[in-house]
């Protein structure tokens, strides 16, 4: 048991005693009753009895909390409160400063002590005793005698439900506040209203419509309205009910509703419901952690993201008129630990994997040649970034599909983890998001077609006055990135080891220090990097070649490896291939045995789709499928007509051959060789006659048919005895 703990009883007669002081010599406790309206004089109880009650479960020890305002410093308190406190302390000061007198007041004979304080202070007995009792009941320190203005209204009891004086009239006697001067008054709040507001608070849905005025209306429609039916309508009749709001004298005021609602729904909860949980977590939630938490050093994790530049680029192929190409898309790759911008790509396509792969390739290769392409000469030390990371963080954009990320991980270039952020949570890769703001603010001058958030409506649209070409914009961007990497301060990037070694606070210093501490610098060759960053797909090896997306590919190396022979004689099999969406001419695959990267070329079977982008090819293949489907329908209909025609011919032939004598023998028919030879000579003669007729200088009409008709009238015993047509 300790001072300012309380002893609580389990019995029917509930009691809570605050321990004021302990006297081990007499075995007594000085306690004050807490469950009273006004403080009473302390009294003593036996320690042994209390311990016995605690052992038998009749009482227990609990902590007691005093009002928080009693712990405030004097500078946080009102001067009038301090004055009243000091007046009360001055009255009981003689008792508090004399330990013997205080011990006698609590544990011994207290006669004459109260009278002594009254004579010393000149105050009434009621005042002196009340100050003493308050002092001990509220903790026994100076602020225990603060005026209890903070407790005003805490003991007010609301009515259970509205009290009606007569039919339709509500009693307003218990309503607090000023009287209503204009219009009908609202009624006061009751316990029933508070219970309804508490239930209503649990049903508030998230959304932009969460406003107190709208909530008050919804509350009144739900709890302060009645449903009426047409006069005389029975329960079994089909009648649409109507809800009517109660008159104002039966409603609580909007101010009372807001006051009670905020007890159950605080301001942060209102904010979360208004903006949504995702927007709240992104824009309003506190973020005590660091992005580099758990990372060992530079190259541990890269963050990649894209944004549309706030500038219109000048169209380079027009000298007569100032035209705009549009707003390019900027891709940044940022090292999380050092905040170093390690990769850059700017393109005019919508955000896609091609642009992201170009930025990643730039991040993992040397920047000297890249900067030279845009007229910026640098040394390797100015932008010393060509290492492969171990983790890569993306957002869930349409370009970052699972197949692209899996293909990147299967490229085996050192990236082992691909992190996807939650939807609409750009704050989870805040390093790269902040870099966009810093770079675009410096890189884009106001007069260069810069897009502003609040443009002047009387001005031309910024697309009408572009200034920078693509190359000029790239020059500015490269120079500002180098400036940012080498001069921006990053205090939060430092750890204990960096401070110990005297590392400066720029991203480049942190980057260089981290690479010096690394066991090895992770770099890969250009061909392996290009291969890993290509899109990945599944192809089938067939006897005709590698079949991928409706096209056939092959190479001499593939033929020498007998892949096509294996597919023809053993069975087709699947392989993983890489491709670029900008050309159908080549695809690439990897030999699992040797690890070599094989380039497969488009074969003659698919030459119709050469030198095209995949989007056009896929569209064309869909058209071909439609054409083949139409052709298949036409072929089926034509086959049906042919079948009907052949059946009619067969029926006519059978009808014509009914009178012909048929043999009943089962063996092979004799004389077929002679018949065949005779028919062949007849056929050759007819063809010879056609040749002579076509080569004759004078055309002879119907020569062929007449000669045939004459020939059929001759004696066919000698097949060569065909007369010459003299009349021709």
Task: Describe the protein's architecture and organization.
The protein is an alpha+beta fold and 728 residues long. The protein contains 23 helices and 22 strands. It has a six-stranded antiparallel barrel with strand order 17-18-19-22-21-20. The chain has a five-stranded antiparallel β-sheet with strand order 4-3-2-1-5. A five-stranded mixed β-sheet has the order 14-13-10-15-16, with helices on both faces. It is elongated, with a radius of gyration of 49 Å.
Please specify the SSE layout and strand pairing.
Elements: E1 5-9, E2 16-23, E3 28-33, E4 43-46, H1 47-55, E5 59-63, H2 79-96, H3 99-107, H4 113-121, H5 125-137, E6 164-166, E7 169-170, H6 191-201, H7 212-223, E8 225-228, E9 242-245, H8 254-264, H9 267-275, H10 277-283, E10 301-308, E11 313-314, E12 324-326, E13 329-335, E14 341-347, H11 353-363, H12 368-373, E15 391-394, H13 402-410, E16 417-420, H14 430-443, H15 470-487, H16 496-500, H17 507-517, H18 526-533, E17 535-542, E18 545-548, E19 551-554, H19 556-560, H20 563-569, E20 573-579, E21 586-590, E22 597-602, H21 614-656, H22 672-695, H23 703-711
Parallel strand pairs: 10-15, 15-16
Antiparallel strand pairs: 1-2, 1-5, 2-3, 3-4, 6-7, 8-9, 10-13, 11-12, 13-14, 17-18, 17-20, 18-19, 19-22, 20-21, 21-22
Helix pairs in contact: 2-4, 6-8, 9-10, 14-15, 22-23
């Amino acid at each position: 048991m300790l001072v300012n703990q309380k002893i609580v009883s389990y019995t029917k007669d509930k009691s809570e005693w605050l321990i004021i002081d302990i006297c081990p010599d007499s075995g007594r406790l000085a306690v004050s009753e807490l469950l009273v309206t006004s403080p009473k004089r302390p009294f003593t109880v036996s320690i042994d009895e209390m311990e016995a009650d605690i052992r038998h479960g009749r009482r227990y020890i609990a902590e007691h909390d005093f009002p928080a305002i009693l712990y405030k410093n004097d500078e946080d308190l009102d001067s009038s409160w301090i004055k009243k406190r000091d007046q009360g302390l001055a009255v009981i000061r003689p008792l508090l400063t004399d330990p013997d007198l205080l011990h006698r007041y609590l544990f011994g004979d207290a006669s004459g002590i109260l009278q002594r304080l009254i004579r010393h202070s000149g105050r009434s007995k009621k005042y002196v005793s009340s100050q003493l009792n308050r002092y001990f009941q509220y903790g026994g320190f100076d602020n225990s005698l603060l005026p209890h203005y903070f407790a005003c209204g805490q003991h007010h009891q609301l009515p259970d439900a509205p009290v009606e004086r007569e039919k339709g009239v509500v009693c307003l006697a218990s309503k607090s506040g000023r009287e209503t001067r204009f219009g009908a008054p609202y009624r006061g709040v009751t316990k029933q209203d508070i219970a309804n507001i508490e239930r209503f608070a649990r049903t508030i849905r998230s959304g932009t419509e969460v406003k107190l005025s709208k909530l008050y209306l919804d509350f009144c429609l739900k709890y302060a309205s009645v449903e009426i039916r047409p006069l005389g309508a029975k329960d079994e009749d089909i009648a649409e009910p109507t809800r009517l709001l109660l008159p104002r004298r039966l409603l609580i005021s909007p101010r009372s509703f807001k006051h009670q609602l905020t007890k159950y729904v605080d301001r942060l909860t209102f904010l979360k419901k208004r903006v949504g949980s995702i927007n709240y977590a992104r824009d309003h939630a506190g973020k005590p952690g660091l992005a580099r938490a758990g990372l060992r050093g530079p190259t541990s994790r890269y963050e990649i993201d894209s944004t549309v530049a706030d500038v219109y680029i000048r169209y380079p192929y027009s000298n007569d008129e100032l035209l705009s190409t549009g707003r390019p898309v900027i891709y940044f790759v940022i090292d999380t630990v050092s905040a170093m911008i390690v990769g850059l790509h700017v393109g005019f396509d919508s955000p896609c994997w091609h642009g992201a792969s170009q930025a990643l390739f730039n991040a993992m290769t040397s920047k000297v040649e890249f900067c030279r392409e845009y007229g910026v000469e640098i040394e390797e030390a100015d932008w010393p970034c060509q290492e492969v990371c171990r983790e890569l963080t993306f957002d869930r954009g349409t370009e970052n599909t699972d197949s692209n990320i899996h293909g990147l991980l299967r490229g085996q270039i050192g990236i082992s983890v691909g992190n996807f952020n939650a939807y609409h949570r750009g704050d989870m890769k805040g390093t790269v998001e902040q870099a966009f703001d810093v770079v675009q603010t410096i890189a884009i001058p106001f007069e260069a077609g810069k897009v502003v958030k609040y443009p002047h409506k009387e001005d031309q649209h910024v697309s009408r006055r572009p200034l920078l070409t693509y190359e000029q914009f790239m020059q500015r961007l490269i120079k500002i990135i180098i400036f940012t990497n080498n001069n921006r301060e990053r205090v939060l990037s430092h750890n204990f080891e960096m401070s110990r070694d005297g590392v400066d606070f720029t991203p480049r210093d942190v980057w260089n220090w981290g690479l010096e501490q690394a066991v090895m610098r992770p770099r890969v060759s250009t061909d392996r990097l290009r291969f890993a960053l290509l899109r990945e797909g599944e192809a089938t090896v067939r006897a005709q070649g590698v079949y991928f997306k409706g096209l056939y590919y092959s190479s001499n190396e593939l033929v020498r490896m007998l892949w096509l022979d294996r597919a023809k004689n053993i069975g087709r099999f699947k392989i993983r291939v890489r491709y670029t969406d900008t050309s159908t001419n080549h695809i690439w695959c990897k030999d699992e045995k040797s690890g070599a990267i094989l380039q497969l070329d488009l074969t003659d079977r698919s030459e119709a789709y050469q030198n095209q982008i995949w989007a056009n090819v896929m569209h064309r293949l869909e058209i071909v499928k439609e054409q083949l489907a139409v052709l298949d329908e036409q072929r089926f209909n034509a086959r049906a007509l042919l079948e009907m025609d052949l059946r009619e011919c067969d029926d006519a032939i059978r009808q014509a051959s009914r009178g012909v004598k048929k043999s009943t023998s089962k063996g092979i028919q004799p004389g077929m060789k002679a018949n065949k030879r005779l028919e062949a000579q007849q056929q050759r003669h007819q063809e010879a006659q056609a040749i002579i007729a076509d080569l004759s200088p004078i055309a002879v009409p119907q020569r062929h048919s007449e000669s045939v008709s004459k020939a059929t009238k001759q004696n066919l015993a000698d097949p060569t005895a065909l007369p010459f047509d003299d009349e021709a």
